[in-house]
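Issue 218. Parser rejects a valid record. Input:
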Amino acid sequence: MQLHSTTNPSISGLIFELSQDNHDEDENKYRKYIMDPNFVSVCKLANAFGFYVDKNAPWRFIADLESPQMRK
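Output the parser choked on:
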């Protein structure tokens, strides 16, 4: 188990990212991801498979271990 604050959260295998964009650039997140016409569909599709989209990094998908899909 990694408890160090600088450890990348994706080491757990429960998170995957589709981009390496900077987390500090809020305008870029809004323009590039949230305003994309497919963003709502991507969120719904991720949820259907037991993932959710990270609100602070919309290119990051996190496994929802409490979802019925993940419990299977």
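Fixed in the parser; the record now loads. The chain has a mean pLDDT of 89.
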